[in-house]
Amino acid sequence: MKRTLIAFGAALVLGMPLVHAKPFKWSSAGEIATWDIHSQNNALQNGIHAAVYESLVYYNSKTFKVEPVLAESWREISPTQVRFSLRKGVKFHDGSPLTADDVVFSIQRAMAKTSNFAIYTQGIDKVVKVDANTVDIILKGPNPVLLNQLTELRIMSKAWAEKNRSMEPKDMKAQEETFAHRNAMGTGPYILKEWVPDQRMVLERNPNYWGKLDSNVTQIVYNPIKSDATRMAALLSGEVDFVLDPTPQDLPRLRNNANLKVIDGVENRTIFFGMDQHRDELPGSNVKGKNPLKDVRVRKALYQAIDIDTIHRVTMRGLSQPTGALVAPQVAGWSESVHKRYPYDVEAAKRLLAEAGYKDGFEVDFACPNNRYINDEQICQAVASMWAKIGVKAKLRTLPLVTYFPMIQRYEASIYMLGWGVPTFDALYTLQSLLRTPGPGGDGNYNVGRYSNPKMDAIIDRAKTETDPYIRPRLLTEALQLQNDDVAHIPLHNQIIPWAMKKSIDVVHRADNRIDWRVLKVN
């Protein structure tokens, strides 16, 4: 009787009937690299962090409009000053109150040298405490996507970071760890209870959460399972409730299983190849004294040697939208013209290589993740075979995402695969991250091929502060077209994301491929 009363009391604290209290077990091929919320900008990781740490604002999963979270309201004092009123009564998981000091600290932390989140602070000059519950964000100039950027800037306790020597983000390119790397303490609806990397992560419902959740999930258990066969077997056996990345070849039998359901949606993520356009000589290449990838004819030859229709049909089994653009159609700046691909043409590719002085091809390092994107390793294997037909011997190496991303950010790959989602739904995020010459404030933070064009930089810098609804889209499209003309990267496709789950799972499929923990239900 005593145990029953305690359990009943706990259910009341959780704000839902005991009979509906449910665990949620899920899986995907990837693992997160850190619990430091400003250390590495990765969509899988950001989505998991959002269960524990919250931002001032966040997207509504059904409308994708920005809505209040830790900020109760905001107003523009001037075109370069926006005032945010914080929600009162919000507490961190240790019981301490959220204050303006935490917000100022967190946004400044995101701007630190070791942060991968400076891209989301684009245009912010400083953050100023007005009073205990009010902060002003001071801008360098008008910023039409400030609220969209703030959806990814989660808030950490300043006192907790000071106590645990985590004032700056962990540098993912280095080996040293901080307390915030393996531990978490936010204001969110779930509390991190356990994390054994590559094995198991457990989040438990926050009994003192400030908000009301339309969810009955009391515990979230995440098991990363790299093996496709093992991951699918776990879903079919009922060991897990949900798989974020079912394999394309298994979808027909999943769709025909009476106990399961599959929800499809187009992700705002484009898969592409980047190329080292900086070094004067490529490590491991048989070409000495020069870098073939600096020649636009070589880059275009690699592009035109890719049979994207075969990848779409065979490798992806239809789960892709072949594209010539570096952003998906949902993103401001996209147009039909930039979406058009260079044609697949092996003979044209050979001619381009010969014109560039490489009629016999060349050897080149080629790096890809093997557990981040749908069939990432298989895509790279197929492309390596296609490049071989024009004499390019791509020496393929594949790595798990936790080591892959730090590696490419150390500029250790000659050709690399990357998938870029757009949390702001505005092409500036892609342009500034991937095409702007690397510099401060998030410029070129994932331009790991170190492409640089002064004309591109000028367009991007103008787009940062352009608010005219007619001029701004034209600037974004112009920059995307310049990327195509320069073949700065080789776009492949936009991902179509199927989620596979038990029929008892009620979830909203989001274009950013993340679960909204606030509305997740297990029926």
Task: Please render the helix and strand layout as text.
Elements: H1 2-13, E1 22-27, H2 43-49, E2 57-59, E3 66-68, E4 71-78, E5 81-86, H3 100-110, E6 124-131, E7 134-139, H4 146-150, H5 158-163, H6 179-182, E8 190-196, E9 200-205, E10 217-222, H7 228-237, E11 242-243, H8 251-255, E12 260-275, H9 296-304, H10 308-315, E13 320-322, H11 336-339, H12 346-355, E14 362-369, H13 376-388, E15 392-399, H14 401-409, E16 415-421, H15 427-434, H16 454-463, H17 471-486, E17 489-502, E18 505-506, E19 521-522
Parallel strand pairs: 1-10, 1-11, 14-15, 14-16
Antiparallel strand pairs: 2-3, 4-5, 5-7, 6-7, 8-9, 9-10, 11-17, 12-16, 12-17, 13-17, 18-19
Largest sheet: 11 strands, mixed
Average pLDDT for all residues:
93
Beginning-to-end CA distance, first to last residue: 27 Å
Dominant shape: globular
Strand content: 15-25%
Round the Cα radius of gyration to an integer and report it: 23 Å
Structural class: alpha+beta
Q: Number of DSSP helices?
A: 17
Low-confidence stretches: 1-19
Helical content (DSSP H or I, runs of 4+): 25-40%
How many strand segments? Answer: 19
Please characterize this protein's 3D structure.
This protein is an alpha+beta fold and 523 residues long. It contains 17 helices and 19 strands. Strand 4 (71-78) and strand 5 form a beta hairpin. Helix 9 (296-304) packs antiparallel against helix 12 (346-355). The model is unreliable at 1-19 (pLDDT under 50).
Give a brief description:
The protein is an alpha+beta fold.
List keywords for this structure.
523 residues; four-stranded antiparallel sheet; alpha+beta; eleven-stranded mixed sheet; 17 helices; 28% helix
